[in-house]
Write a structure and sequence with these properties.
By secondary structure, this protein is an alpha/beta fold. 32% of the residues lie in helices and 16% in strands. Strands 7, 8, 9, 12, 13, 14, 15, 16, 17 and 18 form a 10-stranded mixed β-sheet that branches. The protein has a 6-stranded parallel β-sheet with strand order 3-2-1-4-5-6, with helices on both faces. 47% of the residues are buried.
């Protein structure tokens, strides 16, 4: 596709501001209206392609439309695609519709892609998007395996001028999660001895009958890199989360949020950090397992009942469990604090222990040098200014290491040990076999 002068102007502006600002972290902020790009001429706003426009993808697309022009929507379900294409706040009947995401990536007028597909598609699409020169927004959890963590990290380092943003919106909740993270990092709870991460258990269900594939759905393309299975309605769309073939169950679904807050608060989000042992002896699955794999394929198979003990080298214990309240409980030598999406409670909160210790400067530090603002606003600001967004890919991959290792320990029903610096499972060939999964033929990862 040829590029007209207006497209060149927009793309060159985006690339120039990002590349130039990578040279330094101490850059002055550009004059910035809320939301970003909102007051610019249409042809100077970024072109956006939305890949995956089901329930979550639709919500994300509506928000993206505040910051740029949605030029393309894509989904292997034609009903989803048409709904988004004609949505008053998304495609407005003017966006082009596609089934194949590669047609979106081929367009030179698209600067940003929003990837909100099932988890097993994330990394392949994101790798190809980076190679195509796009800035990437991807919903959590970014990866399906430990190997995918390394693939995407290497790609982001190869293309440092592309902004890569993760949809972990709790990082933009000032009054609850940011306050909790700041309080722990400031040492106001004293020395932390234990963190309990409540993420609930996966639902149980099945057996589900094989069904005819709906005429509007390309089931083969939906499965993509995953192993091939007969179509069952509960394997598809939102329900994909409860099958290890496509996701990690609650370990990655809610773990991507709450384990993230726990590691962020503990200052354990840098490469080489994290727990060194994962005890999965207290984990149950809704179907029979053999050697870490379900013996049936017609029921939900992710763990519904678990308490995974994760141990850090410094002795801190983190429990990832399904049985308590959804949220994160920090226990320190001076006090305890619990936070979730509805509340932040405990004596340290009731008595405002962080009074004078939770400033705008503290927020800027948590926001990787940028001011507090809405989640996607931070993404588009970073495209304009460069640097790292609040939900950066590198710290998210540290979280994904923990989530995947907890799931592996649960599937095997025993402890596994991990070298976070080498990123290797220690002396356990069976557990190590879960580090990677070969994509289905025809859906291999690109070589970058």
């Amino acid at each position: 596709m040829s590029r007209n002068p207006k497209q060149i102007k927009r793309r060159d502006f985006l690339r120039h501001t990002t590349t130039a600002s990578l040279a330094t972290c101490a850059i002055p902020y550009l004059t910035w209206s809320k939301p970003a790009f909102a007051n610019r001429a249409k042809n100077d706003r970024p072109g956006i392609g939305c890949i995956g426009v089901g329930s979550m993808g639709t919500g994300d697309a509506v928000e993206h439309a505040r910051f740029g022009e949605i030029l393309a929507v894509c989904d292997v379900d034609a009903e989803h695609m048409e709904r988004a294409r004609n949505h008053d706040a998304i495609g407005r009947g003017k966006a082009d519709g596609y089934k194949d995401y590669r047609e979106v990536l081929d367009r030179s007028d698209i600067d940003v892609v929003s990837v909100v597909t099932p988890d097993h598609w994330h990394v392949k699409i994101c790798l190809e998007a980076l190679a195509a020169g796009k800035h990437v927004f991807c919903q959590k959890p970014l990866t399906l395996t430990l190997e995918e963590n390394q693939l995407i990290r290497n790609a982001c380092r190869k293309f440092p001028d592309r902004v890569f943003f993760i949809g972990t919106q709790q990082r933009s909740d000032r009054d609850r999660f940011l306050r909790a993270v700041n309080m722990v990092r400031k040492g106001l709870l004293g020395d932390i001895s234990k963190v309990t991460v409540g993420i609930n258990g996966s639902p149980t269900g099945g057996p589900f009958e094989v069904a005819d594939v709906p005429p509007h759905l390309d089931w083969d393309f939906w499965q993509g890199p995953a192993p091939e299975h007969a179509y069952r309605e509960r394997r598809c769309h939102y329900e994909f989360r409860w099958w290890y073939e496509y996701s990690g169950g609650k370990f990655t679904d809610w773990g991507a949020h709450h384990v993230d807050i726990a590691l962020w608060a503990l200052n354990q989000i840098d490469e080489g950090q994290g727990p060194i042992a994962f005890d999965g002896t207290d984990a149950k699955h809704p179907v029979e397992y053999k050697d870490g794999y379900p013996v049936v394929d017609d029921c939900y198979n992710t763990s519904h009942d678990f308490d995974i003990k994760c141990t850090f080298e410094n002795g801190i214990e983190m429990r990832i469990e399904s049985r308590g309240d959804n949220g994160v409980l920090f226990e320190g030598s001076k006090g305890r604090m619990f936070v979730n999406r509805g509340k932040i409670v405990g004596k340290p909160i009731e008595e405002n222990w962080d009074e004078g210790h939770f400033t705008d400067e503290d927020i800027v530090e948590l926001y990787n040098g940028k001011p507090f603002e809405g989640h996607k606003q931070n993404f588009y600001r970073t495209i304009q200014e460069g640097g790292l967004p609040v939900s950066d890919v590198y710290s998210h991959l540290q979280v994904m290491n923990v989530c995947h290792l907890a799931a592996i320990a649960a599937r095997l029903g025993r402890e596994i040990r991990w070298d976070p610096k080498k990123e290797e499972i220690i002396a356990d060939a069976h557990a190590s076999s879960f580090v990677a999964r070969a994509p289905r033929k025809g859906f291999e990862y690109p070589s970058l």
